[in-house]
Amino acid sequence: MKSMVCFFALILSFSALAETRSITLVNYETEGPLVDGRPSTVKQWLPGTIVVKKGDDVELTLINNVPSGDHGFFLPDFQITKVVKKGKKEVVTFKPTKDGIFQMKCHMHPAHIGGQLVVLP
Ligand SMILES: [Cu+2]
Questions:
Q1: CA–CA dist 36, 13 (Å, integer)
Q2: Around ion ligand 1, which residues have CB less than 5 A away?
Q3: What is the pTM assigned to this prediction?
């Protein structure tokens, strides 16, 4: 009986170490300011800030439903570069091994508003 309790305690402690964080990001597009007298479009992945813990198994579902076309998801500090085609969904997974605040953006369009990944210690 004692070994059985130890076994379950061991399983519980392992499951508490790393959790899976599943987060869905949706591409959003709206009218932006005039640029050189012409209307512009602002694009962003929402939510613009996502928070996870160091060591978590992170699964990001990226949904691109904007009419302007394909967009990218770029998280350079974790070597993630993904193109999400118009009307499609992509899933990326990674395990953050460092804490801090990291930039995420579209690598295909420099004017795309970037967001941030917050990794807690
Ligand atoms: Cu883009």
A1: 58
A2: 71, 106, 108-109, 112
A3: 0.80
- Cα of 113 to ligand 1 centre, how many Å? 8
The answer to whether 121 touches 84, Cβ cutoff 8 Å, is: no
Give the distance (Å) from ligand 1 centre to CA of residue 35. Answer: 17
- Number of helices (H), then strands (E), belonging to the chain: the values are 1, 9
Q: What are the extents of the domains in the chain? A: 19-120
Distances 31 to 34, 40, 72, 95 between C-alpha atoms, Å: 9, 6, 19, 35
Fold annotation for 19-120: Immunoglobulin-like (2.60.40)
For ligand 1, the distance from its centroid to the CA atom of residue 12, given in whole angstroms, is 42
pLDDT at 77: 97
pLDDT (tens digit, 0 to 9) for every residue of the chain, 121 residues total?
566 554 444 444 444 566 899 999 999 888 888 889 988 888 899 999 999 999 999 999 999 999 889 999 999 999 999 999 999 999 999 999 999 999 999 999 877 888 999 999 9
